[in-house]
Amino acid sequence: MKSSYTAPSTFDQTTVFVPSEDIVVREIEGELILVPIAAGVGDAEDAIFTFNDTGREIWQRLDGKRTIQQVIVELQALYDAPAGGIAEDVSGLVSELLRRNMLAQK
Amino acid sequence: MTLAPSNRPSSGLLFPLASEVLATGAKFRFRARGGSMMPFILDGDVLTIAPLSNFPLFGDVVAFRHPDTRKLTVHRVVRTDKIMYLMQGDAVNAADGWVHAADIIGRVVMIERAGSSVHFGLGAERIAIAWMRRFNFLWRLLRIIGRAMRYL
Questions:
Q1: Which of A19, A41, A51, A81 is least surrounded, with the fewest CB atoms within 10 Å of its CB?
Q2: End-to-end CA distance of chain B
Q3: How many CA atoms lie within 13 A of B55 on its CB side?
Q4: By the 8 A CB rule, do B10 and B33 touch?
């Protein structure tokens, strides 16, 4: 199934992303917790993040094997949702992760 | 919101998080809870732990997995025996027990309190503190100093 919606984005939807090397991700008690490492310090006091369910599904697909477009198509099938909403979620999360240096282009 | 700031992890969750961060070679920063290391570390102080570059030494303040609770604990090395280390809180009369070197994940390198860095208890004085703690006269000395200061 192909998505017919092209979400507005600041990056190319054919881009493949991978988690940054400067991040520790750990599932603890069912929650996916991210600790960015900045200036050689993983800060659990001021900079620790978690995903909601949608965020977790997006994050797990940003594994260096899928383009952004492929991630959108997979999630559209998973949630049986309009492409526009899914694309917005994906683009929004990817933008936020890039801003926080938690994601890198492969 | 798909990505959100998380609450501070509970003490039970800190050990796996700290272990993974330190294993990358980075330091780990978190807020201490409890008074077992008073007066050198207070409840609410923010600690920075660095990965170990060598075996812990007598007097070092280290982060380890507690032998009973299995939680991340920060206490002082008061005795060593090859790869086993006896840990004890500065304000606690009983030692934690012997801890294997593999369960010690880092050394405290910074204490932040009310926006300032505190180092007392981490420097050369740490050896004297460990001796006094081990032979149970640390708090006797602190009480004597406290009484003396009232007269100054």
A1: A81
A2: 57
A3: 12
A4: no
Question: B93-143: per-residue pLDDT in tens?
Answer: 899 999 999 999 999 999 999 999 999 899 999 999 999 998 888 888 888
Residue B66 vs residues A20, B19, B43, B74, B92: alpha-carbon distances, Å: 32, 13, 18, 9, 14
CB contact under 8 A, B21 and A35: yes
User: A45, A57, A88, A95: best mutation site toward chain B, by most B Cβ within 10 Å?
Assistant: A45
B1 to chain A, any CB pair closer than 8 A? The answer is yes
State the smallest CA–CA distance between residue A41 and chain B in angstroms. 5
Which element (helix H / strand E) includes B80? strand B72-81
pTM: 0.83
**CB-CB contact of A17 with A67 (8 Å):** no
Number of Cβ within a 10 Å radius of residue B5: 11
AA letter at B2: T
**Which residue is associated with the tokens 């938690």?**
A102
What Rg value do the Cα atoms of chain B yield, rounded?
16
On whether any CB of chain B is under 8 Å from the CB of A29, the answer is yes
Strands A41-43 and A23-28: unpaired
Of B25, B46, B66, B109, the closest CA to residue A24 belongs to B25
Both tokens of residue A19?
Answer: 């988690």
Mutation target vs B (from A27, A34, A43; most B CBs, 10 A cutoff): A43
In angstroms, what CA-CA distances link B70 with A24, A91, B32, B59?
21, 40, 16, 22
Is pLDDT at B50 greater than 80 in this prediction?
A: yes
